[in-house]
Amino acid sequence: MANVADVSHDTSFKGTGVVGGVRYARAVWITPRPALPTAGAEIPEDGRENEQSRFTVAADTVSSRLLARSESVTGAASEVLKATAGMVDDRGWRRAVAKNIKGGHPAEYATVLATDKFIEMFEKAGGIIAERITDLRDIRDRVIAELRGEPEPGLPAVDGQVILFAEDLSPADTAALDTDLFIGLVTELGGPTSHTAIIARQLNVPCIVAAGAGIKRISSGTKVLIDGSLGTVLVNPDEDMALAQVEESRARAAKIAQWTGPAQTRDGHRVQLLANVQDGATARTASTTVAEGIGLFRTELCFLSSTEEPSVEEQADIYARVLEAFPESKVVVRTLDAGSDKPVPFTSMPEEMNPSLGVRGLRIAFDNEGLLTRQLDAIARAATELGRDDTAPTWVMAPMVATVGEAKWFARLCRERGLIPGAMIEVPAAALMADKIMPHLDFVSIGTNDLTQYAMAADRMAPSLASLTDPWQPAVLRLIKMTCDEGQRQDVPVGICGEAAADPLLAVVLTGLGVNSLSAASTALAGVGAQLAEVDLATCRQAAVAALDAEDALRAREAVRAAIAAGQPG
Ligand code: PEP
Ligand code: MG
């Protein structure tokens, strides 16, 4: 890996943590991919058949190697390797290569051209399909290396424990990981639903994705401390501090493994732990964990590649898959939060200068109420068909509510359909107006991701602003406190459904502030529950006071650690 200027002591980077755990080891970059060929000389007509068979042999070799590897592992890792082999065997892709060879291109370049065509198609489809582009590039590179007789690109040989760094990991690389040696993963690109993330979860290797281009400045051999819950990478940290954090993380992992719920503080104050899901599959997975229900169903993620609005019946079917995963518990469905980083093609929004400040969330229905009412009809239909009632309530909330009028309008549309209305508190205006907004609603849920972005005026997608887009910022905590105080005064339940709910230490503060529920990725819930079990409510309240009073996010964390230590018995 060619590196720009090396980074110095204590430099930190922030990405999206997808598997928790703290690890300290040398960084190692993945073996580079082959340089891609340029067009090259045209193959004469009589050599093209031979060129085609060179390609076929290389592609068959890559495919059978991947299949053989799939048999040596189990579960999702095996499925991923099989799926990658399937892409090498894909008839459409092979036909595209064959067409290029027939046109006179050498096999290597024909492979590049065909793959580019597919990448373009996947990019257009967007969303989850676009995340498979890494897989396409991976098969292209493997076939090119095979055609040239070069070693397979991918994992380097290492002689001790390392943390693997890559631009993005291919599924085949991740699935072949020896987790005794590769004890952590950090990628520049990728997303929480990428293959890297899926396999890292299965292997239970601490993993951070989307850490940004800055990590390229970390050279192989540099010592790094990674925290897979917080998504942080610290370069050349103080060794004693790093080892202490690793030890603490291992002790915590042991406790978490034994924790079964339901969540309560040491002195019995209950906090509901709920899961964030995006479809039937993630809801079913959540139902096998300690999650007591669903606190955020991000419906827009079901439609990232839908160019036409699904009918009420089709939507009802999709929602039913999620509701039926929790037949006896609360499920909170969020109406479409399209726009900004989550484009939903059928909502056909105009290009905007500032998408995150534009027509997103509930705003997409301002000029198109039917879009919202059809979705509410579909949610009501799914709930009725499954016979859900007060014992398994279906709550519905609107994203990006900013005014009392919006809350009233949304609540009326919900109540007309027998649905229980709520709103996300993620625009600072909504927290500031909580006293006026709450009388119209049955619950609220604080979206700390956006609340932080808007309170700090810092783009949540910008890795370089990670220290600002931190829900530990006391300014954000003060907005949460205002909302919780009002919730208690008006007896309106207040939940948290942003990433803050997945941070065990912050969960102590949020409990102290009076939240009723915490909703996060289901894999993070046991960590939160185990932490709450160690503190009493008085300590949570002291931690909250200390965090609110801190000057900045770093000091807030320190003050809370101190408050928890002081609150330990004996
Ligand atoms: C949030 O903003 O905190 C939230 C939960 O919603 P999303 O991350 O989907 O914007
Ligand atoms: Mg949000």
TrEMBL record:
Pfam family name, one: PEP-utilizers_C
Alphabetical list of InterPro entries matching this protein: PEP-util_enz_mobile_dom (IPR008279), PEP-utilizing_PTS_enzyme (IPR050499), PEP_util_AS (IPR018274), PEP_util_C (IPR000121), PEP_util_CS (IPR023151), Phosphohistidine_dom_sf (IPR036637), PTS_EI (IPR024692), PTS_EI-like (IPR006318)
The UniProt record lists the keyword Glycosyltransferase: no
Enzyme active site: 195, 497
GO biological process: phosphoenolpyruvate-dependent sugar phosphotransferase system
Principal location class: cytoplasm
List of residues binding Mg(2+): 426, 450
Domain PEP-utilising enzyme mobile: residue ranges: 161-231
EC number: 2.7.3.9
Domain Phosphotransferase system enzyme I N-terminal: 14-132
Domain (PEP-utilising enzyme C-terminal) ranges: 260-536
Molecular function via GO: kinase activity; metal ion binding; phosphoenolpyruvate-protein phosphotransferase activity
UniProt keyword terms in alphabetical order: Cytoplasm, Kinase, Magnesium, Metal-binding, Phosphotransferase system, Sugar transport, Transferase, Transport
Cofactor(s) the record lists: Mg(2+)
Residues that, per the record, bind phosphoenolpyruvate: 298, 334, 449-450, 460
Subcellular location(s) per record: Cytoplasm
GO cellular component terms given for this protein: cytoplasm
Substrates-to-products reaction catalysed: L-histidyl-[protein] + phosphoenolpyruvate = N(pros)-phospho-L-histidyl-[protein] + pyruvate
Enzyme class, broadest EC rank: transferase
The protein's role, per its UniProt record: General (non sugar-specific) component of the phosphoenolpyruvate-dependent sugar phosphotransferase system (sugar PTS). This major carbohydrate active-transport system catalyzes the phosphorylation of incoming sugar substrates concomitantly with their translocation across the cell membrane. Enzyme I transfers the phosphoryl group from phosphoenolpyruvate (PEP) to the phosphoryl carrier protein (HPr).
NCBIfam families: PTS_I_fam (TIGR01417)
Protein family according to the UniProt entry: Belongs to the PEP-utilizing enzyme family.
PANTHER family, alphabetized: PHOSPHOENOLPYRUVATE-PROTEIN PHOSPHOTRANSFERASE
The protein's name in its UniProt record: Phosphoenolpyruvate-protein phosphotransferase
Gene this chain is encoded by: ptsI
